[in-house]
Each structure stands twice: as structure tokens, then as C-alpha cells.
Amino acid sequence: MPCTQSRSPAGVGTQPPLSALSVVFADPFMELLEGKRISWKKLLTFFLFSFIFSFCLFASLRQFRTPKPEGYNSQLSTEQPQAGNGSTAPKSERQLTILLWTWPFGQRFRFSNCSELYDIPNCHFTVNRSWSQKADALIMHHRDVYWDREKLARLPRLPSQRWIWFNLESPSHSPNLGAMNNLFNLTMSYRRDSDIFTPYGELQLLSQPQPFSIPPKTKMVAWVVSNWRPSSHRVKFYEELKKHIPVDVYGRYHLPLSMDMLLRTVSQYNFYLAFENSQHKDYITEKLWRNALSSGTIPVVLGPPRVNYERFLPPDSFIHVDDFASAAELAQYLQELSKDTERYQRYFQWRKWLKPVLANGWSTQLCRACHFLQRTEATYQAVPDLSKWFV
């Protein structure tokens, strides 16, 4: 028997009036109270209507229940119930443990107090692998694990534990990416579309405009390079550029320059060649953020396309080699710009409102992971094809 009420044409009543319904439910009780005998027909009718009424009431209430989300896995939730009620505590109330599988490139460092960088509880970082079955997350640096995929795949792991693939190198210097497929839950890199974005630097908006003093310039173009490969695109471009404009090269195979003298030395130059060792999406490194911007010179960039740089920097804060038909044309522009004080200073106007900030070592990057994990619900996902995404 359907539980919904049928609608009848006007003037035709198919439902009993309220008084009739009250008689059906009330009469048997009244007769019992009065000590009268009840006919089997009335009693059967009473129980039948009671059953139908209860069934319809139960069915109508069920539609207001909140269904369990598809794919829900209670083991993946890291929220803990608060004492005294059934609500869940904010995720940020619980300190997380993060296991760093290896020191990146073997470089040891002190873990930062992430609560001082972000408005979150501090995370407990450790390199002790005895935590592998207790940690909320594992961070694995690609260059230190890419050769050992089978061993990693055999490691037991908690259902709620998140494995994070960490890499700051470009795809050209990240071997065996395909071996990492379906092994990790999250990505952590300089790519803006990573789950955890860890750039080499970024711009900080100032609360009010600040004057910027351009360091005195006495030289033309500087370049600091350690990985010198004559066959690389950037070295070939430099070889053409130096035919038309003087370029002072520092590094392992050129003029010596200590790290503590780098910014002071580069600040004397009008321009700095922020040439990346390979061209990939979002791969904009300390060559721009530290060597050029922190020293107060104009970067001449070679890397991803201009439109990619403009996702990180104002369009009038740098010079892109792709804007010129040849190295000779670029050299001519640099010569003219260095002699035109007003045009040269326009490349620094953005500094009134923006300040370049460097990623301060490995520990700062790890705190970005802490911040992400504290603010994000633990739900299952896998990175199926690293080599297809990380190009």
C-alpha cells in the first residue's frame, strides 16, 4: 500500500474525513476502558492502520538522514572527538608526527618550530625510522630514493598515513620518475600545482609603500654558474651574448666568488643572467630570487616562457631573452637601458609594494608540509603517473 496520499479531482473525496480516522484509532481503546467487548473486525482494522501509519512515519523520517559520502573511509580521518560531546575537534588541535625518510642530499639541519611560521601547532619532525608505523606522514626526497622503488613499495604503511614525494630539482635532473608511480599520496615541489607548493622564493606584499634604494652600479652584466656544460642552451646563449656586451662570469670554472660575497658583488652590476640549467614549468630558482633580486639588480632570465615568469613576478621586473630575436639584439637593449636612468629605474618601481622573500632552507620547506597536513583533511588519493605530470 503506498504511503503517499493520492490527489483526487475537485469535489471527489477518496480519503476519509478526520473524524472517521479518529474513530478508527480511538474506538477500540474507548471500548476497552468502558469494559465493552471488541469485535475481531474492529481489532484487526486497528492493528492494520497502526502498522501502515508506523511504516509511513518511519519511511518519511529516513529521507532526512545524512547519507555517508561515497568512498568514505573512517580510518583516513585524523580528527579526534572532543571529550564531553560528539563533535570533532579541529584538525589543527593535534600535533602531527612527520618522518623525514632521509636528509636531503645528506645535508643535516635543525628542524624549525613551525608554530612560529604559521598559526598552527608545531609538528614533530624526526628522521628515526622506528616512527614509520606511527607517523602521520612520510616525506621522501626523490634524489635520495629514486633508485630503491621496490624496497619502498614493500614497506608496511598505515591506511591513514600519507606519503609525500618531495623534489626541488627539475625533471631534467630527476631520474627514474616512472618508478615512483602509484607510490605516493601527495606531491611537494616548486610546481604551483603541487599539493604542497615549495617555491625557491616568493613576493611578499608590504603593508605600506617603502622606498627602495638601487645599489650603485659600476659594471654591466654578471653571471654566477657552477654547473658549466658547453653544450647546454644557456652556455651557448652566453657565448653569443658576450660577443656584443661584457659579461663577468663567476663560479667553479671562472672568477672565484665566496658565498658571503655574492650579493655584495652582484649588486654592482646593472644586470644579472638568471639562466636556469633547464627549461621547465615553474622552474625558477635561487638564480633569480637570491642572486638577482636579493642583490638589487635587474634579472635577465632564461627558463620557462615569459607568461610563466609573470605568474611569480610583475611583468616589468625582469627581462626575458625570448623578447629578442637574437643575443645581439638583447645586448643592444641592455646597453641602451643602462644609459637611460629613467627607464632603468622603472624596473624597480614594483619594489615599493613587494619584497622578494627566499625559502630559508630545508626546514622552512618542511614547515609548509606541516601547515598543509594540519589544515587538510586526510583523504585517500594516489599520484598515478609522476613522469607524465612532472615535465
Automatic annotation (TrEMBL):
Its EC number is 2.4.1.-. Pathway: Protein modification; protein glycosylation. The chain crosses the membrane at residues 43-61. Keywords: Glycoprotein, Glycosyltransferase, Golgi apparatus, Lipid metabolism, Membrane, Signal-anchor, Transferase, Transmembrane, Transmembrane helix. The keyword Lipid biosynthesis does not apply. InterPro entries: Glyco_tran_10_C, Glyco_tran_10_N, Glyco_trans_10, GT10-like_C_sf. It is found in: Golgi apparatus, Golgi stack membrane. Residues 94-201 form the Fucosyltransferase N-terminal domain. GO terms for cellular component: Golgi cisterna membrane. It is an enzyme of class 2 (transferase). Its main location: Golgi. Belongs to the glycosyltransferase 10 family. This is Fucosyltransferase. It comes from Callipepla squamata.
